[in-house]
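In response to reviewer comment 3 from the previous cycle, which asked for concrete evidence that the modeling workflow produces usable outputs, we include below a single protein chain processed end to end. The sequence was submitted unchanged, and the resulting structure tokens are shown without manual editing.
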Amino acid sequence: MKPDDLVDATPAQFELGFERSPAGATILRRQLVAYPFHVGRVLHVPGDPAGFATVYVQSCSGGLFQGERLRLAVTAEAGAQVHLTTAASTIVHAMPDGAAEQSLTIEARDGALVEYLPDPLILFPTAELRTTLTIRAAVDATVLAAESFLLHDPKGGDGAFDLLGSETRIEGVDGRLLALDRFRIDGRSVLAARPGVNGTFGLQGTLMLVHRSNPAGALEALQSALPESPGVFAGASLLPGDCGAWLRVLASDAIALRAVMRAGWIAARRLVTGSAPGPRRK
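The workflow returned the following structure tokens.
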């Protein structure tokens, strides 16, 4: 049995459905949230457009563990606007005898805006994680999705994670594949600091801005977030299929990584809504 078969056979532990109310506010219309997840109430952050929803996703288990098969799904109906984030970084614990898998599907219908911006994964020694993100977006919808990671050995040594495998699929609402990104990396390769791979930069982040109605504008927005800093190596380019743009970041520390990812978020929000997002508490 392939890893994808294992993920597909696992019941979803997390399903959220957002709609725009007759008054214009985004509401959480449907939810199915099982262990290990917890979802806070819908917040409306000062400085955001009227009715814009912010939701924090939390873990009751303290991270990702060996053998877990987690499935998440988020749907934003026409005109809904939602910001999804985590309360803190997610620890990916040691996995000496197996792996964990997590899949997320985001569907954005006509005119919807979904921001999925979790804090970085913290990969412990021997961690092995495979993630799959599927984005299905209408032509005039926008999805901004982030993935980032860093290494940490709680014993203070040079222990490294075994594997991080990532797949991001961007599709139309009809299921037609528009763009596909895959990578596999192990902690030893990161620590080796090889020229042409990651050099001295040990942290990595990716922002996908799916904005099919104006891909050139999406690229311009992400390019405006590129820093002039010796602690960051980053670049932005158009996505295939005229579906938007993406930003990939290599950073020397968590502060530098966070700054670039936040700048990309602010630029994307301004592109879509005309204003910067209000500050969130973490």
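The chain has four helices and 17 strands. We consider this sufficient to address the reviewer's concern, and the full set will be provided in the supplementary archive.
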